């Protein structure tokens, strides 16, 4: 991978962590940011203190506010912008990207107004076939990746060639990368697990213990499966790294912004104050709105999402939301599992 050039848009925590992986794999990496101060810090101090304090960045990694300079020679473009900014960043970069450059995104959410997945947004703005867009996802805290903790993720694309090219860019001895053709499943799982992580933070913040959180994760996985199936995903994807793997790590770690936000809400903080104190994007908040709308559109039951929507946007007390979930009508688990994980919709993922 030596002498390859990569661009990372933008310089948040996950984008920076993946930029470090690329640089350590021999790529010359340019990160793009709108913030002059952040660019100066990266180039002069070799740090990105707001997003990854205590991390020294590799010499092969540089930063710029010039979009053309960042992407014009890059063979890999990594879009690591929040879902709310993805279309704007892609539109700004599109005119400068080489025709044969590999385009990968690392966002975990839906576009708020259109409810589109990020691969669809990128395909539209970059005017490329959607099957060539790659998504990278899986259980991967940025704070641990930059410490070279063993991490395993998935790159998904309809084009096996594109997925394997992305795999070659990222894989190394601490960052293992599998391929998977189920872009829909990987993107849905990446987005909805943030909602469940908000719920896990609420549950922990209320002191409800491990029993409650285990139930929340299990039923949350069922919600991911229901929506994913309705949107055309392969159900087996949700049993893998992008599904249950990412769900576990996001719902059980204090590194998770969504878990921390949920815990703050449980302690009585207003949503606006939580987001201000966090100082970084909490994707689960916007995703709750999008998933609430998608559940209605596809006519699927997502009770956890529904209750979190009520807490976040309708002023419902978190404790009441949990009580409503526990008080739902009785049913048989075997019937629920059979319905949610019907095998006729599944096909084995390629890994």
Automatic annotation (TrEMBL):
Pathway: Membrane lipid metabolism; glycerophospholipid metabolism. NAD(+) binds at residues 142, 257. Its EC number is 1.1.1.94. GO terms for molecular function: glycerol-3-phosphate dehydrogenase (NAD+) activity; glycerol-3-phosphate dehydrogenase (NADP+) activity; NAD binding. Pfam families: NAD_Gly3P_dh_C, NAD_Gly3P_dh_N. Residues 330-342 have a biased composition (Basic and acidic residues). Residues 1-19 form the signal peptide. Sn-glycerol 3-phosphate binds at residues 108, 138, 140, 193, 246, 256-258. Belongs to the NAD-dependent glycerol-3-phosphate dehydrogenase family. This is Glycerol-3-phosphate dehydrogenase [NAD(P)+]. It comes from Paenibacillus sambharensis.
């Amino acid at each position: 991978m030596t002498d390859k050039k990569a661009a990372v848009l933008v310089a948040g925590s996950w984008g920076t962590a993946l930029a470090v992986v690329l640089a350590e794999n021999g790529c010359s990496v340019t990160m793009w940011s709108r913030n002059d101060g952040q660019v100066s810090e990266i180039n002069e101090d070799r740090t990105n203190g707001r997003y990854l304090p205590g991390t020294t960045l590799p010499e092969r990694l540089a930063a710029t506010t010039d979009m053309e300079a960042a992407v014009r020679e890059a063979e890999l473009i990594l879009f690591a912008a929040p879902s709310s900014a993805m279309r704007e960043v892609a539109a700004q970069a599109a005119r400068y990207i080489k025709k044969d450059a590999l385009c990968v995104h690392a966002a975990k959410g839906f576009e708020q107004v259109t409810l589109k997945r990020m691969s669809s947004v990128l395909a539209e703005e970059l005017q490329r076939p959607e099957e060539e867009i790659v998504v990278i996802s899986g259980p991967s805290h940025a704070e641990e990746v930059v410490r070279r903790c063993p991490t395993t993720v998935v790159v998904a694309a309809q084009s096996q060639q594109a997925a394997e090219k992305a795999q070659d860019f990222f894989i190394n001895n601490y960052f293992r990368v599998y391929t998977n053709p189920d872009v829909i499943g990987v993107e849905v799982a990446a987005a909805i697990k943030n909602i469940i992580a908000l719920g896990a933070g609420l549950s922990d913040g209320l002191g409800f213990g491990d029993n409650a959180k285990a139930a929340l994760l299990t039923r949350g996985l069922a919600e991911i499966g229901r929506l994913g199936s309705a949107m055309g995903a392969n159900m087996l994807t949700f049993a893998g790294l992008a599904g249950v793997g990412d769900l576990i790590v996001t719902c059980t770690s204090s590194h998770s912004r969504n878990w921390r936000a949920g815990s703050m809400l449980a302690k009585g903080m207003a949503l606006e104050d939580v987001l201000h104190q966090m100082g970084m994007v909490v994707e689960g908040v916007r995703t709750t709105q999008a998933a609430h709308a998608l559940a209605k559109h596809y006519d699927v039951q997502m009770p956890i999402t529904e209750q979190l929507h009520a807490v976040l946007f309708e002023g419902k007390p978190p404790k009441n939301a949990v009580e409503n979930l526990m008080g739902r009508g009785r049913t048989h688990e075997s019937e629920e599992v059979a319905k949610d994980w019907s095998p006729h919709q599944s096909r084995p993922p390629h890994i």
